[in-house]
Amino acid sequence: MILYRWILVAVLGGLLSGVVHAQTDDSEQEVQGAMDGGEIPRVLTPARLDQPRSEVPASVTVIDREMIEASGARELYDLMKLVPGMSAVKVDGNVPTVSYHGTMARDDRRMLVLIDGRSVYKPGLARVVWNDLPVSVADVARIEVTRGPNSASYGANAFSGVINIITRHARDVSTTTVETRHGNNGVSDQRLTSGGDRGDASWRFTLEQQHDHGYDDGYDPDYNDDQLYRDDKTLNRTNLRAGWDLSPRDQLEFFAGGSSTSLQRPPDDAFLEFTRYRDFPVQRNENAFAQLRWQRDFSPRHSLKVSAYSQYSDSREKMDLCANPVTPTSAPATGAIFFTRQMREVFLRKGNIDDTVAALGDPGETALQNKLSELDGSNAGTFCGDFTFDVVEKRHDLEIENTLHWGDRIKLVTGLNLRHDRAQSETYLSGTAENYSQRAFGTLEVEVADPVLLNLGGFWEKDDINGEFFNPRGALILKPAQGHSLRAVYSEAVRTSDLYEAEARTNLTADNLTPEFEQNRQKWLGWTTPRFFATQTSPGDLEAERIESRELGYYGRFGTVELDVRFFEERLRNLLSRGVNPFTFNAHDRERVDLEGWETQLSWRPVPDHLLRVTSSHVHNEASINIEERLSPRDSGSFLWRFDPNRRWMVSTVYYLAHDYNREGGSAVPLPYERGDLVIAHRRDLGDTRLRVEGRVQQYFEHEPVVFKENRYADRTHYQLSLALEF
User: Fold this and answer.
1) Distance CA 722, CA 192 (A)
2) Smallest Cα–Cα separation from 338: which of 294, 299, 371?
3) Which residue from 176, 141, 69 is spatially nearest to 640, judged by alpha carbons?
4) Which of the four pLDDT bands, split at 50, 70 and 90, describes residue 35?
5) Read out DSSP for 428-470?
6) Strand, helix or coil at 111?
7) Contact 643/661 with Cβ under 8 angstroms?
8) Nearest C-alpha neighbor of 66 from the set 558, 502, 643
9) CB atoms within 10 A of CB 270
10) How far apart are CA 518 and CA 706, in angstroms?
11) Domain interval for residue 158
């Protein structure tokens, strides 16, 4: 049945493209990115070297502009479905999760994402927030994904892999484009991109807004059976890239941008025992960055690059809550007990929420009982207030990188990096935490003999919180024939604790209280800053998460066919897998995951106007805790076919498969994911203006939720239509 659907998608696209082809003039055909069997494609990311794919010490997936257009993706995370072994779905409502090999079902903390060399991995609450990335899909030139640990090149947190998003150079955009997209499920997008050049200077900027309803058939049964799951989102982003050719040997580039997001959030289950919502929460994030990069080419064999950036993010989720009375028969004011100093003192002695709540019935807790009786006999009314989950994160980074070629056999990359991270949060840190780090890295490639390459890399780093680490990598690459290589790679990597994991001291503080409590905070609550009774503190002795990876791989180029195969065995230890939130801080670094399996990716261009790309992955995941398995499908893959009958038309079909999420772990139910997309685009010149019309249809073949029960679409068919004018 799965194969039948796959073939059906391809045949449907073929029939439609045949119709389009019959209606056009063959003389207008234009070759778009033809793979002519000549030079092997080159990549930059794995070893920080410009290398042909056959010589890199890793498995690499490249998603170029041609594939991006064929996918029809409107969000960056959706492109990651084209990467073998990558899980890319909206697990937490309107918050996408991208995870290589599917470890961690929420808030994946184990993969580094770069945009033009700038890390978007947030230092306070370690994570990559895909909604906040200030880059439009239309501005992406290519994405290079290093599959496997790469801390040897990029340091801690390049734990399971690196996604390097490379935007279009300012010189590549010399027109203005206005685009609008609409579809069912509330999709409404607008974009403006403009660029130009003046002699040695060039620039490009983009403004974009996106909106959709998220999953629209989910309910929150723990709160209200009539309440639809709340995951609408609105994203706004801007991005600027400018470049100057200062001299024939010097290039200077400036990057800047930002984003703002508004996300509906469902009620927090941890609060529902103690409170009810007067108004449902909305999370608002604001982000900004500025980056400067200078490169000098001393010669074709020697270059120096200096880059510096600063970035800022502010995330706030506001909740308007009223405390539930202790029992149905007690006075409304008794709910205020959960925010009193007396109950906080009991929690500090008991150490957990359950025992503290049980103390409400313990006559031996004199101070707590007196306060509860006082509230029960009062006419203070219901305790209500505003609560905010807040965190402001800042990073300043300076890096120097030197690349040197000695003859034709030796290449060396060395570099130094200084970084300052700072997080401020009353909710998570009760103040401010900082971390200074210093790092040095190097990669040496040596052609030992004519068919044999040796690649050695290492990254040393030391920071104030985690101490000192060294991440090594060694690779032996055998090239038996032109365009073919066999590789054996061993690498180690760490994920170090973020500022929150290392220095957590949580407090949920109430503001804007109802009048009686606002005017008499000390009297009714025992303190002038009312806080929820539970507080969590980091043990301060967490070890870094560690991974050891062994890989055997093959890369081959057969004329117009390109093939990459990876066999891997990975051992993850000291994992921090359990919840670390203001209600429960299970900071145990004792979990483990063992992964082994294989991945393939094949690209074939039978003729210049056809592109066929197939990926597949088989992963065996054995974990000590279920949360590390829920997002890890045993088998997954993708199929993409693009046909350009001429310069005016593009037709593509894409198929995604993941069987099965939630396949392990007690009560978890296996959940399949199958989706087929059809994209048809038409371009037409209208004088000096070019019109582009694109239609996209998504068909979900399975009517199952995505990983968690609330993540379900009401309609299995989604459609979008976009119109763009370029002038």
Assistant:
1) 13
2) 371
3) 69
4) very low
5) TTSEEEEEEEEEEEEEEEEEEETTEEEEEEEEEEEETTTEEEE
6) coil
7) no
8) 643
9) 15
10) 43
11) 2-321+389-506+535-726
CA distance 163 to 128: 11
The amino acid at residue 262 is S
Tokens 């807040």 locate to 390
- Report if residue 384 sits inside a domain: no
Burial (CB count <10 Å: 0-12, 13-18, 19+), residue 248: exposed
Q: Among 54, 60, 87, 252, which Cα is nearest to 153's?
A: 60
Q: Are strands 161-167 and 112-115 parallel, antiparallel or unpaired?
A: parallel
Euclidean distance between CA atoms 367 and 362, whole angstroms:
11
pLDDT tens digits for range 447-487: 999 899 999 999 999 999 999 999 999 999 999 998 999 99
Q: How far apart are CA 377 and CA 331, in angstroms?
A: 7
Main-chain phi, psi angles of 628, to 5 degrees = -80, 0
User: Whose CA is closest to 666, among 629, 633, 614?
Assistant: 629
pLDDT 10s digits, 218-228: 554 444 444 55
Instruction: Tell me the pLDDT tens digit for each residue of 682-700.
Output: 999 998 999 999 999 999 9
Structure tokens at 285: 């994030």
* CA distances, 469 to each of 402, 440, 441, 472 (Å): 22, 11, 12, 10
pLDDT at 583: 81
Residue 8 in any domain: the answer is yes
Number of Cβ within a 10 Å radius of residue 515: 9
- CATH number for the domain spanning 653: value is 2.40.170.20
Cα–Cα distances (Å) from 389 to 284, 339, 533, in that order, read: 10, 16, 16
- Residue 132 CA to residue 260 CA, distance in Å, equals 7
Q: Is 140 inside any structural domain? A: yes
The distance from CA 633 to its chain's CA centroid, rounded to whole angstroms, is 18
CA torsion through residues 622, 623, 625, 631, sign? negative
Q: Are 657 and 618 in contact (CB under 8 A)?
A: no
The reply to whether 720 falls in a domain is: yes
> Which amino acid belongs to residue 261?
T
Q: CA-to-CA distance for 600 and 594, rounded, in angstroms?
A: 20
Structure tokens at 141: 């030139």
Say how far apart CA 257 and CA 133 lie, in whole Å.
Answer: 10
